[in-house]
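User: Hey, my collaborator sent me this sequence without any context and asked if I could get a structure. I don't really work with proteins. Can you help?
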Amino acid sequence: MAQRDRKDIFRVMDEDILKAGKEDVRTRRFLLPKRILWTKGHVENSDTLLENREMQISLAAHRPCILKNEGQAQEKASILLDYGVEIHGGIRLLAWMDSTGRGAKVRIRFGESAAEAMSEPGGETNATNDHARRDMTVEVGMMSMNQIGESGFRFVRIDLEEPEATIALKTVWAVLIYKDVPYRGSFACSDGLLNRIWDVGAYTVHLNMQEYIWDGIKRDRLVWVGDMHPEVTTIKAVFGEDSSVDDSLDFIRKETPLPGWMNGMASYSMWYSIITWDWYQYTGKKEFLEKQREYLKGLSEQLSAHIDEKGQDTVKEGRFLDWPSEGKLGIVDAGVQALHIWAAGSLEKIFTVLGEEALAGKCREDIERLKGFETDYEDSKQAAALSVMTGQKGAAEVNEALLKQGGAKGMSTFMGYYILTARAMAGDYQGCLDCIRDYWGGMLQLGATTFWEDFDVDWMENAARIDELPQAAAEAGQSAEGEQSRVDVHGTYGGFCYQGYRHSLCHGWASGATPWLSENVLGVRILEPGCRKVKIEPHLGDLEWAKGTYPTPYGEISVSHVRQSDGTIATEVDAPKEVEICS
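Assistant: No problem. I've predicted the 3D structure and written it out in structure-token form, which is a compact way to encode the shape of the chain:
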């Protein structure tokens, strides 16, 4: 008998219901915990949770992990699991038995650091439960398979809350939820630390590439347009063209009818213009620009109206540069002035491609007016870097006076890419490599597996790693005599909206070292839209060799650079035939 024709697995479903549904573009992968970091109370056979057991519950319990509360014991049975790397997702908890007969109450706490998973809400360390729930009580019954949570985490604490109760666990798998896309770009060099930094920056953005591009996987899980620029720059260097970029730009445009500013911030509408040009320069798809035409025409007029007779940017709503600059009015003014120049330059190029010559000419006039207004970036590396990139200030002079001073001090996770770029414009490639090692390497030294919303190298003094419990959080009593208790870096530091444990330890805007290494060490620069013309100009600094790939719409460019005995660099390039390579 012939097999019955079928459209898909949902053939029994009403067609209207099916059409109204949406497909999840993401993949799920299950991960075992790497170690048991801590237990308390009556816990038996905790090591069984590290075993690769089937994710199907059964009738017979074979050597279960037992959590038991009994008698007048004050200590609840508790366990802290470490999955070895930050992920986005939840857990799948399989239980053979609970003694209550109705489902035992179990508290689950997710943490990006070990100390966060051990924390209570509120207080000085500011553990929160907003955006994505990371602290919850659920009921776990006999022979159950429980899918719990969706957040950003590496650590999970499980507490049996019921008095006089027992539960028997089979497995607690982590559920990694991610968009399964290949890493088309790559980077390797003679310094293993730089290789690790490139990889971690790529992974940080990958976790934030869900249906849309998020800022962070624990919080805010939102499409913040300014945050997107470093993320999109990383996506170009690692993944190539991805629908999440177009979808995010379309989403925020539809969510922000003019005269509103994107995310309520004028500076983020400026970033939108900058990203739009950069993405077109990468993809070469004019139809993408056409979709933005009418909106950008209105936005350009709106921005132009916020330039006074002196040439000063006068937008009032959302003059945001980055968190370390917040509240420093002179620095913010200088930074936003530079962003306005950059945005006007991007709009001028967009309107030229779209044949809107009058608007392109108006943008050129705006740029001249804005550049004619003198700003003072004071001691801000962020504002200074943007002033260099927009041609207001000379790169060599600013680098010597400020950007190179103090090395990684005064760096910013969001603005890191731009500070490095401005220093590279001054030819200070060695200084950039040293800064990357100290700043992004500093996070790795503290146990990071993704890069953070904010970081200051001063935080490293006497800091505990995030994958261990500082004495103050370990409930283990006093530290050894004469030993200073180490600082819980996650719970102690942070400001503004990211104080203490609310601080995101997986934030895509912190990935800037990844594309910088591809653009400056591998030396890949896009010269014409669609990557039809690309320049290869390596800068190895103290490296002996570097190699890698850079994705284009036509395939990957492969490059290899080796320092010769006379100090010159031997370069080999293999590129798709559609891409013209120049040096």
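In plain terms: The first helix runs from residue 15 to 20. You can pass these tokens on to your collaborator as they are.
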